[in-house]
Amino acid sequence: EKGGFPSFMEKEIHDQPDAVAKTLLGRSDIDGKLTLDELRIDPELLKHVDKIIVLACGTSAYAGQVAKYAIERWCRIATEVELSHEFRYRDPIVDANTLIVSISQSGETMDTLMAVRYAKEQGAKTVSICNTNGSTIPRESDAVLYTHAGPEIAVASTKAFLAQITAAYLLGLYLAQLRGNKFQGEIKDILADLNKIPAKIQRILDNEDQIKELGVSMKDAKSVLFLGRHVGFPVAMEGALKLKELAYIHAEGFAAGELKHGPIALIEEGQPVFVVVPSPRGRDSLHAKVVSNIQEVRARGAKTIVIAEEGDEAVKAYAEHVFYIPETDTLLAPLLSTVPLQIFALALASAKGYDVDQPRNLAKSVTVE
Ligand code: F6R
Known about the structure:
13 helices, alpha/beta, binds fructose -6-phosphate, transferase
C-alpha cells in the first residue's frame, strides 16, 4: 500500500504529479473555459462578492496564503487569509457579499468547522476546498470544490497541499471568468501552464537524490531558516513547518524583506538558510531583491541553500547548494518550489531515525478545539 516506498509520506510526495493532474481534470474545456458546475452557488451572487476570506489551519492555511496572491491578481477581489481559530474570536466583518473559502484536507478540523459555521450565521456564502468526500466541512458548506489528491495517510500534509493550491487557483480563475475582468485573456494561458505542472513536478522527483543527500548530511542541524518573498513566503513557512513536524528541530520561515527588521540578528557562522528565489523573468525585480537578501545573510556567515528556476545562473555565486526547478509562471511556482523542501524534511528526519508518517504529538485530523 506504500507503493514500494519506505513510508506513506514518501509515497505521497511521489503521488503529487497525479494529485495535481486529477484536481485539474474535467474542470475546464479545450477553449480554456472553466466549468466548475459543482460550485452550485448562484453566479450572480459570486459576481457581487466584494471580499474573500480564506479560513484554514496549518499547511492548509499556507495553501490559502499562496492562493491569495493569485486570486487578488486575477479577480481584483480583496482576499484575506486567516487561521480559523483566530477568525472567530475577533468579531470579523462578514456579510452576504463575503465569500468564505475554507481549506481543509480532512474536512473535519474543528477550528475550521466552527469558523465556517460562524461565517454562515453572519450570512456569508461558504465554499469548501476539501480532500475528503462527504466529510463535515463540505457537508455544511454551500459548495465544495474537492481536491482529488487521494487519501493522505501520513500525518504531515504534502500532496493535499499542492492539490489545495491547484483547486484554489481554479476557483480564482473561475471567479475572474465570471466577473469578466481584464485577466480574461490570460485564463487560457494560465490553465495551459497549470496543465504542464504535473510533468514538471515529476522532473523534480526524478532528480531527488541531490536534495536527499543534503537532508542526510544536515541531520545534526540545530536550526534551519527559510526565506521567501511573494508566493515564496508561504512556501518558506511550509518548508519550516515540515521540518518542525518531522525532524523536531527549530525552523522558521520569514518574508525575505523582513530580514532587516529583526530576523537577520539570528544569522551567525554556519546557520543554514534556505532561500526560495523567484523567477528572474518575473515582475517587479523581485529576483534581484531576493538575491540581495541571499548576499546579506551570506555576508554574516549563513550557509545558503537556494531553490531557483532552471537557467538562473546568477544565484550560483551566492549559494553553497542550488536546486533547480523547471520554469513556470511566477504565481504557479509554489507547486514546484515546495517539493524539494518536502523531500529535504523527509530525508533529514529519516536520517535521524524518526517515524515520518507518525510524528510525535500530532494527529492527522484535529477534531478538538
Ligand atoms: C501539516 C499538517 C497540519 C494540517 C492542519 C489542517 O503538515 O498536516 O498543519 O494542515 O492540521 O488540517 P486540515 O487540512 O485537515 O484541516
